[in-house]
């Protein structure tokens, strides 16, 4: 976790540069978005990044509402995406960092594994059918947290 600013002798959260729901010890949300959307462009990259953002912060910030926002963007993407992607193999270092990040962020293994699985599936979207399958997974994930 990055160092927070000190104000009057106490730690304060940096909500602009390092909000806690996006920060990471091993991998930050913005870095995973950069990795996942590297071979995309336009509306595909925008929607992929936005869905990743909402899934990443879901258990820590917005709860089920963040999953509903992710689903909204998936539906938008399914209707408006171009689905033109350059080939890309998964980077084992990023995969390991993602796994370690989810383990460190969520004491409940089931929650961390759900977030990791949804993030990986979002990064792997290549067609409208992938989005439909991801929507089903997101709806199931919404049942994990109260």
Question: Your description of this structure?
Answer:
- The chain is mainly α.
- It has one domain (about 20-140).
- Helix content is about 60%, strand content about 5%.
Protein topology:
Elements: E1 6-7, E2 10-11, H1 29-36, H2 42-57, H3 64-80, H4 92-105, H5 109-123, H6 128-141
Antiparallel strand pairs: 1-2
Helix pairs in contact: 1-2, 2-3, 2-5, 3-6, 4-5, 5-6
Descriptive key words:
single chain, 146 residues, mainly alpha, 58% helix, globular, disordered N terminus
**Could you describe the largest sheet, including whether it forms a barrel?**
2 strands, antiparallel
**Total helical segments:** 6
Please tell me what the overall shape is: globular
Helix content: 55-70%
> Number of folding domains?
1
Compact description:
The chain has 146 residues and is mainly alpha-helical. It has one domain (22-141). The protein is built from six helices and two strands, in the order ββαααααα.
